[in-house]
## 1
Amino acid sequence: MKNKQLIKKPADPWDEIAELRKRMDRAKNPDPKDVEHLRQLVVRTPGFLSASSTTQSIRHQFIEKISHGVSRACMLAEVDVLKKQLGYDTAPPLEQLLIDHILTVRLRLIHAELNYNERVVNQSITFKDGEYWDNLLSSNQARFLRAIETLAKVRRLARNTPALQLNIAHKGGKQVNVQGDVNGQKATPAPEPAI
Amino acid sequence: MGWEQRNGRSYYYRKVREGGRVRSKYVGSGIVAQICAGDDNDKRRDQAAKRATDHAARQAEAEIDRQLADVESVIAAMTHATLFAAGYHKHKGQWRKKRHEK
């Protein structure tokens, strides 16, 4: 009985974070102690940062806003497939951020294309309205391209920056170069050197 | 607005813009004019509702784009910082590795 009283169930950090956030949102000037406590809790709960990262939260809000039922399932599936294709799970943190951004921008582009089709192609609208929706679509296409280019650039540069290079040579065999990556990517064998 | 009093009687006119000028087009008086006026009112109300919907849609789109632009600038700053830290510099829009870093 005494032992039961002594064993105290540890508080769930997620509940604590939620409670603190509520309290801080209500207060005009949050208590600095609360801020410090929240900071420590977030550091102890790494999942919180990824769940509340800006790009992800924008994406989730966006999906909730523009899709329902089947279309939402399709969008989420497309995000998952694209995420896998871009190698999100094995990517270093900076690339994960860029991939997250690509996914968000891709959804935005789909939405802009749907809007364009709905308003410009299927309806008769004024020239000014048409110009607005056309510009919106173009700017989103440009943003999507920029996001992809940034990821490609970072990947290309990361590949050219070996943090670690090993030259392995067997007696009488070919020399093999194995290089690591600055961003912590998987080591890849370098192309064979010219003999 | 389209109703005009002439010699003590009400007549309904439609205002039409033609080449930068507004012309009054006679529609009629009595019950026919009232039906036409009601019809025009409905059209005006529909147009106002459509304008309000379009405005709200544009506001929502602008808000989404603003958020994305903010995120984009933050990501660009982080990417640049990471590349600078890895020993790269920008030369004529191209990222290059510093010679002594090689």
## 2
Amino acid sequence: MNHSYLTDPNTSSLSLSGLGKRFGSAVAVENLTLDVANGEFVTLLGPSGCGKTTTIRMVAGYVAPTTGRVLLRSRDVTIMPPQRRGMGMVFQDYALFPHLSVRDNVAFGLRMRGVSKRTRRGVAEEKLELVGLREAADKLPAELSGGMRQRVALARALAIDPAVLLLDEPFSALDAKLRSSLRGEVKRIQQVTGVTTLLVTHDQQEALSLSDRVVVMRDGGVEQVGTPREIYERPSSLFALDFVGRSTRFSGTVVRREGANQLVCDVGGATVHACDPGSVQPGERVTLAIRPESVAVSVAGDREGQANVFTGVLAAREYGGGVEHVTVDVAELGASVLCEVAARGECRPSDGSVGDPVGVCFRREDVIVVADGGAVSSDGDGVAPGLPAATVA
Amino acid sequence: MSAAASAPAASEERPGTAPAAPPSRIRRRTANLSVADIGLWGIAGIAVIFLLLPIFFALISAFGVNRFPTFPPDGLTLKWFTTIDSSYVAAAKTSLTLGLVTAAISTLLGVPAGIALARWHGRGAAFVSALVRSPMQLPYIVIGVASLQFYILVARELDITLLGTIGGIALVHAVIATPYMVGAVAPAATGLSRDLELAAYGLGASRIRTFFTVTLPALRSAIFAGAVFSFLISFDDIPVTLFLVGSERQTLPVKLFFGAEFSFTPQLFAVAATVTVITSVVLLALTRVLGLKRISGV
């Protein structure tokens, strides 16, 4: 973690150190260390079973950790009951109290704190205003749509002025369109209130669009921590590469370094140029990957002589509205390269049809380099030596 | 019962129309559904008539002028209502008290038991669940005789009189009513998301406060249904009560039972009619007040 400004203990709002949880002999979370700065939006991203939900429940106080500590504004709250932590949690199923009106749901936390009726009414109105549901104050949760319930749950969590806002898969029960509009809403509210936020999700889009930092989790441990851009553009492992976004992968060997950060790699006889500020050395085995949107499709032979230009055969076109996915079989690389091009506008691809020879090219800066040593995925999706594989994650 | 009987009829008709093209299939399906609907309503109607006809005859007989129930009556009168013996009013009061005490005991025992059974998945849960529900499987006569013997024993050994007292009878009524309360609460508690309570904890509510402000209100319609059941089981009971009442304190059903046995008069029908109307009105009102109107929090 090279974000010293985000991990400074003086400004950190929430610190997890060496946090672990075992259920019997099963390890749910192991040795998780993370600092969340004041006002920061951090996302735990990973597939189901990676330990992200157990982690957020340990932060909330619903699950007692087996090892490690939870610090809230430098105070050890590891064994503090949830009642006294002052966390605002939004549950996957929202967990709104079915017998209470929207207003009473939002005011519940203040009622438990003995705040006067007048004051809590005012706060409830204010939070409902914030989420745009003021007119629904007198309704029961059952009378609301899924999106509205989610916003009530958010208002209820914010009403207690939480130390940390915890969001446990808050968008998963909603349909795609609503999900993206509520995502924007949550981001806006988080920025307005400046509340430190921890989100748990398996949806990479959510993680990338909302977070200041993303923690990619796998099998109870942290795989990579970084800004959304770092996670997407410089994944540090094959798992992170596969889990976030789509890519075409090639397995190769580093031939030599050129200058400070340029690499020349051999992929089954073909030469691929890449950039890597890291430490891979000539002779090392690496996995190279290219994102679909980084690949340009052109007429074959168009850009002869440039780096990373290859000739292939157009294998498939898939129209997707705004974008079109084009698959090009490149014999040289022994792979089917997935390309994403704008379906309309100036940069429209040539109207080739399946079977036509086409060229693909990509900038060396866009090639993702993952060193194979120690970082090879063990889930059976590792790349066999000399057999470049195309991966669509 | 009626709904289940008509459902297969509706599904049997569908395969025949299946090969048709999509648009016409939609039309045919709607047609099938309306045929099924008519069948369903028909059977429901027959069931209602089947269930309510005896009550209807009792009501008619209460207003008939004939000394012995005749149908149709030769004329209508209110005289049987005005000549109801005051002992029936006393018996009704006893039954009402018993019903309320029984409902209270079964709520106090059945609600925690129902919630516990819904959440306990460990070893022995199925056994305890069966044990809690076991009074439903015993004939009421057996429970009545057993209680009588137990109360005689208690009176002899401990010098405590339970036989013929409101408390003693209500305790036995609660034995047969509590399984119904458990049966109403356990499924509702199973369906309740645990996150509801976690959310309350997170918002600062203690466990006890959460139980009273979140868990119980969320289960209130099941608890209400269980309490009404408990009340009615006690209010209706003859076989158990028969063994436990004394000659000076009788419940309404037991008094009606003996009345029908020894002095069959239209006053019995008048009493039955009055009780039927009052319970129906009270039940409807309670459903309105407790079932539909929400309990306000803030």
